[in-house]
Design goal:
With about 325 residues, the chain is an alpha+beta fold. It contains nine helices and 14 strands. The structure holds biotin (BTN). Biotin (BTN) binds next to α5, β5, β8 and β9.
C-alpha cells in the first residue's frame, strides 16, 4: 500500500514523462519485479498507468473516480476518512455503511461509490446515482439522544453546501431540511439514518449525494455543479472538502455549539417563503418563519398560530 502511494508520487512528479522500473526500484529499495507487481495492483485499482516498452511507466491521468487512496491523499481531517472504503459500483453506500457500523466500524469510516444501483433518497424515494456523482456515507457515533438527529442532518446539509460552494465556486442554497440548491434547481441532498435506543443514538449514517459531473432526470428541476460552473469538478477533491468542512462543524456540534444554525439560516431558501409541507397523512401550509434549535421548521399558519414541523416534503410556493 505504502509502496504504491510512493509510486504514484513519483509518477506524478515526473508529469507526462515515463519513469523507468529501474529508477522506481532504486528509489523504493525493492526489486523491479516488485515494482511491476505494484503497478499491476494500481492499474487494477483504476489508475491509468501506461507501460512504455524500454522506457518505463507514465501516469496518464488520475482516475476521475474517487479511489480510496486518492481520497486519503492530502486529507487533513482528524477522524473523518481515517478509513475509506470505495466501491466502483454498489447498491447504496448507506446500506453498506449501516452494516459496517453494526459490526462495530469506528466513527469517521467513509463508504464511497463511483455509482449506486439502488441509491436511496429521503421519504423512500430513489436517488439516481450514475457515474460522475458524489455518493458518500459517513458513520458517526455522537453521544446524543435520537431527537437531536434532525439537527445533525441540518449540519450535514450545511457542510455539503459549504464544501460544494467553496470547491466549485457555485453558490449553493439550502431548501429545508437539507436539499442543496442552485436557485430552484436541486444539486444534492442528505439522507441521515440512525440506529439506537430511546435515550441514545448508537450510530448514525450520514449519506450525502451531490450531482457533481452527472446529469439526472427526475421530475423536479435538477442541475449539476459541472453545468453551473461550466467545467468538470474533481470529485475526489470535493469529497475531501466535504469531509474537512463536516468534521469542523461536527466537532462544534459535539461541544454543543449552536452557531451553525445561524450559518444554516443564512443559506436557507425556505425562510420567509410561503410553503406547503406534505406529510404522509396531512398537508400544512404557512409562512416559514424560523428553524428552531431542534431543526424544526416553524410555520405561521393562516389563522396566525404557529406550528413546528419536523419532517415532510417542503414545497416553496412563493
Ligand atoms: C435526498 O433525498 O435529497 C437525499 C439523497 C441522499 C443520497 C445519498 S447518495 C449516498 C447515500 N447513499 C444512498 O443510497 N443515499 C445517500
Amino acid at each position: 500500500m505504502e509502496y504504491e502511494s510512493l509510486i504514484i508520487d513519483a509518477l506524478l512528479e515526473a508529469g507526462a514523462k515515463p519513469v523507468s522500473g529501474e529508477e522506481l526500484a532504486g528509489r523504493l529499495g525493492i526489486s523491479r519485479t516488485a515494482v511491476w507487481k505494484h503497478i499491476r495492483a494500481l492499474q487494477r485499482e483504476g489508475y491509468h498507468i501506461e507501460v512504455l516498452r524500454g522506457r518505463g511507466y507514465a501516469l496518464k491521468r488520475l482516475s476521475s473516480r474517487p479511489l480510496e487512496r486518492e481520497v486519503r491523499r492530502g486529507l487533513s481531517t482528524r477522524r473523518f476518512g481515517k478509513r475509506v472504503i470505495y466501491y466502483e459500483r454498489v447498491g447504496s453506500t448507506n446500506d453498506v455503511a449501516r452494516e459496517l457500523a453494526r459490526q462495530g466500524a469506528e466513527e469517521g469510516t467513509v463508504v464511497i461509490a463511483g455509482e449506486q444501483t439502488r441509491g436511496r433518497g429521503r421519504l423512500d424515494r430513489s436517488w439516481e446515482s450514475p457515474e460522475g456523482g458524489v455518493f458518500l456515507s459517513l458513520i458517526v457515533r455522537p453521544h446524543i439522544p435520537p431527537a437531536a438527529i434532525s439537527r445533525l442532518s441540518l449540519l450535514a446539509g450545511l457542510a455539503a453546501a459549504k464544501a460544494a460552494e467553496s470547491f466549485s465556486g457555485v453558490p449553493i442554497g439550502l431548501k429545508w431540511p437539507n436539499d442543496l440548491m442552485v436557485d430552484d434547481r436541486k444539486v444534492g441532498g442528505v439522507l441521515c439514518e440512525m440506529e439506537g435506543e430511546a435515550e441514545r443514538v448508537d450510530f448514525a449514517i450520514v449519506g450525502i449525494g451531490i450531482d457533481a459531473n452527472c446529469d439526472v432526470s427526475v421530475d423536479i428541476p435538477t442541475t449539476s455543479l459541472k453545468k453551473e460552473a461550466g467545467a468538470a469538478v474533481d470529485i475526489t477533491g470535493l469529497i475531501r472538502e466535504v469531509l474537512r468542512v463536516f468534521e469542523n462543524l461536527y466537532e462544534g456540534f459535539l461541544r454543543g455549539a449552536a452557531d451553525f444554525l445561524e450559518d444554516y439560516k443564512e443559506r436557507s431558501q425556505t425562510l420567509g417563503k410561503d410553503v406547503k409541507i406534505l406529510q404522509p397523512k396531512r398537508e400544512i401550509a404557512g409562512k416559514a418563519v424560523d428553524i428552531d434549535g431542534e431543526g424544526a421548521l416553524v410555520l405561521r399558519l393562516r389563522d396566525g398560530s404557529y406550528e413546528r414541523v419536523l419532517s415532510g416534503d417542503c414545497i416553496h410556493l412563493r
